[in-house]
Each structure stands twice: as C-alpha cells, then as structure tokens.
Amino acid sequence: MDTARHALVIGAGLAGAAVTAALCRRGWRVALLDAAPGPAMAASALPVGVLSPHLTRQPTPMSRLTALGVPVTRAELERLVPPGAGWMPVEVDNRGAHAPGRQAAALVRPGALVRAWLAEADERLQAHWSASVATLGREQGQWLARNAAGEPLARAPHAVIAAALGARHLAPEAAGPWPLGPVLGQMSLAALDGAPLAERPQRDDGVFVPEYRDSGLAPQWPSAIWAMGSTYARGQTDTALNDAAHRDNAARLRDLVPAAADRLDGLLADGRLLGWAGVRCASMDRLPLVGAAPDPLSSAVRQRAVAAVPRLPGLWLLSALGSRGLSLAAACGQWLAAEMEGETPALDADLRAAIDPARFAWRRARRGP
Ligand SMILES: Cc1cc2nc3c(=O)[nH]c(=O)nc-3n(C[C@H](O)[C@H](O)[C@H](O)COP(=O)(O)OP(=O)(O)OC[C@H]3O[C@@H](n4cnc5c(N)ncnc54)[C@H](O)[C@@H]3O)c2cc1C
After folding, report:
1. Do 265 and 290 sit in the same domain of this protein?
2. How many domains does the chain divide into?
3. Residue 140 belongs to a domain with what CATH number?
C-alpha cells in the first residue's frame, strides 16, 4: 500500500468532496471528516444555485477562474448526476449593466454533486461523520486531527482543510488570523403550482429562478419550486429565517418580474413562503484559497514571489469559495490534487498566485512591520 498517497480532508461540502473525488480518482485514500452527521449540510445544502461564469467587462481573476471552472463542474454533473435529479440545464437572462444578454447556465443542487463524488470514491474513502476537528497537529510526519476531548480522529501524511470558515481555527497563519469572513444569505422559495412566472431565470441584483424540478430534493421541499435569492449580509452568521430578508428578496424581485414579487409578498403574508439560509465563506480579496499552507514561522521573511513563501509539509487549503462554489469547487479540487502530487496545475501562474493561500502573509511581509 502506498502510504504517502493518503490524505485526511476536513469538510464535506463542495470543496472537500471535490478534492476527495480528485484524489481518489488518482488512486489516493482519503479520510473525510465533518462535524455534521452527513455530507453537504452547511452552505452546500443550498436547495438550488446557479452554475455560470462571473461576467465582467474586462477579465478579472474571478471571471477567468469561473470561465475555467464552469465547464469542469458541468462535465462532472453530466458524468455523475442524471438531469432532473440534482441539476437542469437552463439559459439565464442577465439584466445587469455589466454584461447584459442571454447566457448558458445550469441550476444545481450542490448536495447531489457532493454525494455523487463521494459515492464514486467508494472504498478509497473513509467518511467520519459528527467528527468535529478541534486541533490539527503534526506528529511523526503525519497530520493528526483530534476532537475537543483530545482524542485522535484520523491521521495521514497530508491534510486538506476544506472546512470553509472552520479554516480560521485549524490552519496556522503567519502574523494574524486567516482573512476569512462570513456572508449570510437567505433564499425565498415556494412550491411551483401553476405556470412559471418567467420563461427562464432572470439575474440582476440576485437571481429569480422561475422553475426548478429535482426528484432528489429533501422531503421538506416540494419537487418543483421557484426561488429568489439571495440576500448578502456580510459578517452575519445566524441562519434562522427572517421576514426582513424575504422582503429584501421581494424588493429586488420587483425590478426583475413584478408579478413574481406580488406572489412572494402574498405567500409571506399567508405564512406559506419557504426559505433557506446559509453562510458563505469569503476571503478579504473575494478569491478562493487553494494550495499549500504557508509556514507561519518563516513566511515573515520577504520573498520576491508568493510562490517562494515556505510551506508546511503536507498541509493544504481549499476554502473561501464565497458565492461561487458551484463554479469553482470542481476545478479547484482538481488543481489542488495535481499540486499535492507535485504536478504543476493547469492554471496560468498569475491565477495560481491569485489563489495561493500564502498571498496574505506574503503581502504583509512585503509591507513590513
Ligand atoms: C444563500 C446562498 C446562495 C448561494 N448561491 C450560490 C449560487 O447560486 N451559485 C454558486 O456557485 N454558489 C452559491 N452559493 C455558495 C455555495 O453554496 C458555497 O460556495 C459552497 O457551498 C461552499 O462549499 P464549502 O465546501 O467550501 O463549504 P460548506 O458547504 O459550508 O462546507 C464546509 C464544511 O466544513 C465542515 N466543518 C467546518 N469546520 C469543521 C471542523 N472543525 N471539523 C469538521 N468539520 C468542519 C462543516 O460542517 C461543513 O460541512 C450560495 C451560498 C448561499 C449561502
């Protein structure tokens, strides 16, 4: 047995499942740990999201990353998830001033893809549910995850922190905490009874999904829904549904499809409106963290390039997918798996530097004390 190709992955949302799938496909063994009792129970429990590139007038790192990432996710969906049981192809009308026009997209329930990835990993994967990692330390060449009682949960030569905001406590960062913050979002949704109120999804400040059908939606949801989402409350983490957020969604929906806003208001007044809220994890520069974790002891040294910052052996990050987990996770998981095997990921050097987890420590060191 190849003991070096063994990783523990913390977090079983889109990020952790994506890297698990990519590693297992390369023949690695993975111990996957999550504090929740099953996969995709935090932000990745989103009932429906939009898979589409981030369009901007001029290319930006995010527009380039999502342009690379969307086809990778789409290919994974086509390979692993039957249409109608976790995703459906659509076109979206972009109504914003940035990039108006119609765009090919897909509506996706992230949990369907997460489960499909874990099922594919099969016997290479050992899943540990209700396993909250309190500390991650290195002992005798292995990363060891322990619970709050100090009991060992899993150990392996490599560890991937894919725990969204949980990364703040698990990975040591040079000269300060990881620059990650929460962004609470609430989606309003309801059963689709009758004809959809638009021909296709409409996007400006938020997205109106007039129709989403999914035979695998959890029992608390109808199998055909419409939805408007989502609010964007930086710094907040309370996922209890609230009417103010529904009204915020209704106000933005009024600019897109007034009849749908009337429907939303009516259902809210009748107490029949459904909703879902989750917490996104965003970095300070809004870009994901993908790659080797910097060594906190040596990264205070000024380096010419971020790539030169010394790293902790075998510790990796895949976090801060923000509002773009569907567009980014699959590709980021594949890039990270390549890097873990000592390959150069198929990604331009400037983009690699843009998502390097060491960039914050590197910038701080260059600014000086
Ligand atoms: C309202 C809303 C709407 C969205 N809409 C879209 C959309 O339309 N399109 C799109 O692409 N994206 C969308 N997103 C974003 C997308 O849902 C996220 O980017 C994605 O799900 C993040 O995946 P993740 O695996 O990084 O995090 P999560 O799914 O949050 O998973 C992190 C996991 O880590 C575990 N964990 C944390 N700490 C520990 C620990 N110490 N020990 C063990 N386990 C731990 C947690 O239990 C959790 O399961 C939306 C998000 C929200 C909230």
Report:
1. no
2. 2
3. 3.50.50.60
Contact 208, 228 (CB under 8 A): yes
* Atom nearest to 49 CA in ligand 1: 8
Burial 46-69 (b: 16+ CB within 10 A, else e): bbbbbbbbbbeeeeebbbbbbebb
Q: How confident is the model at residue 297 (pLDDT cuts 50, 70, 90)?
A: confident
Cβ neighbours of 116 (radius 10 Å): 20
Whether residue 193 has pLDDT greater than 80: yes
Q: Is residue 251 part of a domain?
A: yes
Residues 6+ apart with CB under 8 A from 277: 184, 185, 186, 187, 239, 240, 241, 245
In-domain check, residue 78: no
Pocket of ligand 1 (CB under 6 A): 10-16, 33-36, 41-44, 46, 49-50, 110, 132-133, 162-164, 166, 170, 185, 187, 229-230, 278, 280-281, 321-327
Q: Which two tokens stand for residue 277?
A: 């809220």
What predicted TM-score, i.e. pTM, was given to this entire model? 0.97
Residues 227 and 261 in one domain: yes
Residues 24 and 121 in one domain: yes
pLDDT digits (tens, 9 = 90+) for 151-192: 999 999 999 999 999 999 897 765 567 889 999 999 999 999
> How is residue 42 written in tokens?
């935090």
29: Cβ contacts below 8 Å, ≥ 6 apart: 5, 6, 7, 124, 125, 126, 156
Whether 106 maps to a domain, the answer reads: no
- My answer on whether 28 and 148 are in the same domain is yes
Q: Is 84 a member of any domain?
A: no
Number of H helices, E strands in the chain: 9, 18
Please, what is the average pLDDT of the chain?
94
Same domain, 292 and 304: yes
Residues 186 and 314 in one domain: no
Q: Which domain holds residue 151?
A: 6-44+115-179+284-367
Q: Which atom of ligand 1 is nearest to the CA of 18?
A: 25
| Three-state secondary structure call for residue 323 | coil
Instruction: Please list the residues that pair with 274 across neighbouring strands.
Output: 189
Residue 217 and residue 272 share a domain? yes
Index of the ligand 1 atom closest to the CA of residue 163: 34
